[in-house]
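Researcher: Next entry in the queue.
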Amino acid sequence: MIATTLVTGSTPARREAAIAQALDNSSDVAVILEGLPDGLQPLEDLRHLSGLQVARIAPGCLCCTGNLTMRVTLNRMLRRHPGRLYIGLSTADHLARIREFLEQPPYSSLMVLTHDMTA
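Model: Structure for this entry, 119 residues:
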């Protein structure tokens, strides 16, 4: 099971910084970031880590208008079998719905959601 953390925060840079701080070198890590960077990209400095995979998707509610984009990106990341997954969300408005989506099949058999992280 892939430990998965949803990350919220006021800016893309803060969300990325929170994820960067939480990283360790113990396993492959996949990161899905919703929204475009706002100048600072802390994860870019960590690209040298061999197991770090970062995907950016355009902002849009991931449980509503961005659902297809989220599914495609998530499926691509999960095919690589990362040891850890972080999903940075541009807003916490539908956090409960996103958690519910991720707790349904097929994702419920592939990942376990951890406590959310607020940047």
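Model: The two ends are 25 Å apart (CA to CA).
Researcher: Noted, moving on.
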